[in-house]
């Protein structure tokens, strides 16, 4: 099977190339949806499970042989989406919830009748082996960290509106004392113990990692946040160079990494439930299902 992946430079070209489709081409009257978007789906990081699932399962299972997935990043995807949305141009992106884009734009998931993207995923907290013995209070706080999609989306929206991630986390923590108190219940203060939290540059993981950093520092830890790609994030916790991560999307997105390093980390379970993966389009587009892309 041909690799359905377009280089990162294509993501930038696509943001400009979509303009050629014209702002009125939201249905089929000006050509099929496939023709309008040049048979391209705007994706994110090439190593993301969402990308692998789309390329290796969704495209072949739905017979979308002529379609490609544009490699880029979460930021490049969001920029392409904004550019198209502002002009009411057609665009298809790989999407997930929670994400600030659903609060900023009127979007919809394309139906997935084959169920390839699966049901709702969880976001889990993963820590290195031995953390409970070395830093029991950090372990307890991380184990008690749990929130809802509306909580994380508030932080994400603050960041999207221009706040620095650390400032957004500080504001959210100050406004949600009851929930934060549940996370810190039974946690003793420490005196400057160092922790390293690994995270990927996805909007939701940036938000959650900075909130956790803020709360850990409030009880006396010195936290170092290190941004890496998904593979090094998992490898770092598995080899002990990182203490924890709070952005493990399971059971689908990070399934390969979970299997690769199984037995070399401790899974503290979900800190967020009710997530979703799939293909996302603006609500103004006259298409409702992935099946409708076949033959487009």
TrEMBL record:
Keywords: Cell membrane, Membrane, Signal, Transport. Residues 1-19 form the signal peptide. It is found in: Cell membrane. The keyword Cell membrane applies. Residues 32-174, 194-295 form the ABC-type glycine betaine transport system substrate-binding domain. InterPro entries: ABC_Gly_betaine_transp_sub-bd. The keyword Amino-acid biosynthesis does not apply. PANTHER family: GLYCINE BETAINE/PROLINE BETAINE TRANSPORT SYSTEM PERMEASE PROTEIN PROW, GLYCINE BETAINE_PROLINE BETAINE TRANSPORT SYSTEM PERMEASE PROTEIN PROW. This is Glycine/betaine ABC transporter. It comes from Litchfieldia luteola.
């Amino acid at each position: 099977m041909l690799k359905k992946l377009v280089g990162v430079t294509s993501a930038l070209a696509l943001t400009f190339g979509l303009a050629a489709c014209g702002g009125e081409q939201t249905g089929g009257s000006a050509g099929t949806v496939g023709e309008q978007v040049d048979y391209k789906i705007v994706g994110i990081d090439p190593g993301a499970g969402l990308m692998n699932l789309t390329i290796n399962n969704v495209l072949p299972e739905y017979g979308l042989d002529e379609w490609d997935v544009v490699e880029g990043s979460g930021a490049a995807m969001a920029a392409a989406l904004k550019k198209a949305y502002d002009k009411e141009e057609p665009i298809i992106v790989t999407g997930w919830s929670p994400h600030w884009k659903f609060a900023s734009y009127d979007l919809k998931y394309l139906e997935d009748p084959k169920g390839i993207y699966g049901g709702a995923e969880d976001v889990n907290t993963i820590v290195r082996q031995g953390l409970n013995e070395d830093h029991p209070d950090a372990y307890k706080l991380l184990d008690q960290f749990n929130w809802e999609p509306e909580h994380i989306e508030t932080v994400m929206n603050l960041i999207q509106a221009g706040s620095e991630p650390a400032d957004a986390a500080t504001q959210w923590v100050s406004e949600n004392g009851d929930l934060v108190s549940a996370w810190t219940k039974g946690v003793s203060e420490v005196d400057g113990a160092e922790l390293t939290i690994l995270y990927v540059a996805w909007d939701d993981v940036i938000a959650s990692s900075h909130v956790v950093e803020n709360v850990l520092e409030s009880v006396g830890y010195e936290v170092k946040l290190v941004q890496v790609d998904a593979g090094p994030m998992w490898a770092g916790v598995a080899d002990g160079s990182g203490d924890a991560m709070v952005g493990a999307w399971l059971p689908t997105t990070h399934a390969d990494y979970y299997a690769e390093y199984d037995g070399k980390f401790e899974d503290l379970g979900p800190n967020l439930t009710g997530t979703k993966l799939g293909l996302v389009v603006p609500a103004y587009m006259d298409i409702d299902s992935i099946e409708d892309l076949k033959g487009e």
